[in-house]
Amino acid sequence: MSLIMDLHNHCEFSFDSSTPMEKNIEKAIELGIDYLSITDHLDLFYPHEDYRKMLDIEGYFAKYNKLQEKYSGRIKFLSGIEVGIQTTTAQVNDEIVRSFPFDFVIGSIHEINGEDLVTDFVIEKFKDIKDFYKYYYEETQKAVEESKEFDVLGHIDYMDRYIDDIKSIPDICEYKEYLIPTLKNLISRNKGIEVNTAGPRKGLPYMHPKKQVLEWYKELGGEIITIGSDAHQARDIGKGVEEAVELLKECGFTTVSVFEKRKEKKILL
């Protein structure tokens, strides 16, 4: 069975990866992946100096163009970026993305109002974990509404990775009032969501998003779905993709999507 795609992974152009871009490509070819997009981080105004490395987009494209030519005919290698979307950076993010010829753009929530959700220990500012998740999903809704230049919303329940006691994570249905409008907004603008397979590698019993969110998205008429491993090391390229395909089939999806020059194309499962 073909692994179809891995449209979310990182290389040395991300602040949190040191993997050479070529290693990811070679691993994807070894696994028989049809479509690969390396989506390095753009998180503007990151609050911590240790991690504040502006994505060298020109450097990324210089290497991308060279390797795309080298591996032409062996894999469909697409340019990509993972943009940290938040209301405070929406306009600047959009301007940057429009300035470069990306094939594929993921919009993800890593920060809210200039605070990193993990390293700033935002959750500790809330007495009740339910209030934190309310804040998280409410701000996700706002960021999606204000951001224009992205194709899919990444790892919707991302924060679950960083909860010490996963039994304390509230039922996703408690935040339906924020998630349903978010999904409707995406659908109305021909944007999609990703299945991010990193959850089990982070100690969770599920991928991102939870099956319930995929079912809501399907019920609302959503059709644009991508799959990505969120690998930061070459050894994790492609992990969980087969399981993601089976999950999507269980939810009633018959296609997944790839993007070339920001144009969506469906592939049968």
The average pLDDT value, as a whole number, equals: 94
First and last CA, distance: 10 Å
**Class in CATH?**
Alpha Beta
The major pleated sheet works out as: 7 strands, parallel
Major sheet strand order: 1-2-3-4-7-8-9
Walk me through the structure:
The chain is α/β, with parallel strands linked by helices and 269 residues long. The protein has one domain: Metal-dependent hydrolases (TIM Barrel, Alpha-Beta Barrel). Helices cover 31% and strands 19% of the residues. It contains seven helices and eleven strands. It has helices at 21-31, 57-70, 90-98, 129-146, 176-188, 211-219, 241-250; strands at residues 5-6, 35-42, 76-84, 104-108, 111-112, 115-116, 152-153, 192-196, 225-228, 255-260, 263-268. The strands form three sheets. The chain has a seven-stranded parallel sheet with strand order 1-2-3-4-7-8-9. Strands 5-6 form a two-stranded antiparallel ribbon. A hairpin with a 2-residue loop joins strand 10 (255-260) and strand 11 (263-268). Helix 4 runs parallel beside helix 5 (176-188). The longest helix is centred in the middle third of the chain and has 18 residues, at 129-146. The termini are close together. The mean pLDDT is 94.
